[in-house]
Every structure is written in structure tokens, then in C-alpha cells.
Design a protein that fits this description.
CATH class: Alpha Beta
Order of helices and strands: EHEHEHEHEHEHEHEHH
Distance between the termini: 15 Å
Number of helices: 9
Radius of gyration: 16 Å
Structural class: alpha/beta
Shape: globular
CATH topology: TIM Barrel
């Protein structure tokens, strides 16, 4: 269980153009630790161009994480890569690209323990609460989040339906931070929304 500074990760949702995402990222950047490019239809070249769009908006590469594509993360010299179940093994990425921060998406205590043992720097676990991005799938809930957080020593970043009003429960369960999509990207005023999250996390 990690009790350091709570991290805020913002994950692209595939609904915005990259210019729209970058514009919102520029507003949020002072308050956000990492921006994930999670564009499942993008080619490697698309992702490279997306990194450049973010850089134009002065998002530092040290705050950019690429979903799945280790090659793009290495070539664009971003902070790291987020690995899914179908991605390269954590061990392989850490061995060949030691400069990259490696996150692993997990869905159980067993997967979390295995990922930590393989050298992952942090875990992404969810979905915690009901969310429009996972229709029909039951949320894993606070209880399971707590079990995962207790089982590992690396940060567990919680994702799924996290709003300012329930983020406190997530942190109390031992999460190392939160990942947000619609809660910020679809907010009427992203700046007000991020300040609400920050205020809540800072009070833990």
C-alpha cells in the first residue's frame, strides 16, 4: 500500500480530437501528474503526431504516458507506457526500455501481485464505480480496491466513475491516486472540476 502524494492521471477517451484533448490538457496541466494517450484506433504514427500536438500546448513529455505502444513511448521519449493484458510483458519492457515508467492494468489481487513482481512501477485498477465507459459490467468496488492496495507496495491508481464526491472513499481504501476520463474531459468547466479533485485529495 502506497501512502505518498496522491497522483492524478487524465486518460484520453477517444471522443475528442487530439487538438481538443490537448487544449483541455493545457488547462489541467498544473494540477495533473500524467496524461495518458489511450486512443485505441490510432496507428503508431497517429500517436507520435498526438504527442507533438500535446507538446505544442506545452504538455511536458515527462507527463505523457502512451497506452500499449512501447515503441511510440520510446521513440517520443515520453514518461512511460501503460500495459494491458494483451501488451508486451512488464519484464520485457523494463529490461529493454529501463528509462520508461511502466504501468500495468490489473483486475485482481493475483494480477496485481504478479505485476509488482515483474517490475511494474504502478498499477491501474478498476472500474471502481459504475461508469458509462463500461456499460453492463459490474464495478469492482471499494472493497476489492482495498484488497489490491493492501497486497502491493507500488501505487494503485483507481479508475472508473471517480468523482469529487466519491474520491475520498477511493483514497481511504489505500489508492495511490485516481485516473479520470469523463469527470474532467466532459465537464462544463474542467478547471473548476480539477480544482475540486485537488482540494479533496489534498485534504486526505
Amino acid at each position: 500500500m502506497n501512502r505518498g502524494k496522491a497522483e492524478i492521471h487524465v486518460i484520453s477517451n477517444g471522443k475528442l480530437t487530439m487538438e481538443q484533448f490537448a487544449h483541455k490538457a493545457a488547462i489541467l496541466e498544473p494540477y495533473v501528474d500524467y496524461f495518458h494517450l489511450r486512443e485505441k484506433t490510432f496507428t503508431a504514427q497517429d500517436l507520435l503526431e498526438a504527442v507533438e500536438v500535446l507538446k505544442v500546448q506545452r504538455i511536458p513529455t515527462s507527463k505523457i504516458i502512451i497506452n500499449d505502444r512501447v515503441d511510440v513511448a520510446a521513440v517520443s521519449m515520453t514518461a512511460g507506457v501503460q500495459l494491458a493484458y494483451h501488451s508486451l510483458a512488464v519484464e520485457a519492457v523494463k529490461a529493454h526500455f529501463p528509462m520508461l515508467k511502466v504501468g500495468k492494468s490489473v483486475h485482481s489481487v493475483e494480477e496485481a501481485v504478479d505485476a509488482e513482481g515483474a517490475g511494474a512501477d504502478y498499477l491501474l485498477y478498476g472500474h471502481i464505480f459504475p461508469t458509462q465507459s463500461k456499460p453492463g459490467l459490474s464495478p469492482r468496488g471499494i472493497g476489492n480496491l482495498e484488497k489490491v492496495a493492501r497486497a502491493v507496495s507500488i501505487p494503485v491508481i483507481a479508475i472508473g466513475g471517480i468523482k469529487p464526491e466519491n474520491a475520498g472513499q477511493v483514497m481511504d481504501a489505500g489508492a495511490g491516486g485516481i485516473a479520470i476520463m469523463s469527470g474532467l474531459l466532459e465537464a462544463e468547466d474542467p478547471l473548476i472540476s480539477i480544482k475540486n479533485y485537488v482540494k479533496l485529495l489534498g485534504s486526505r
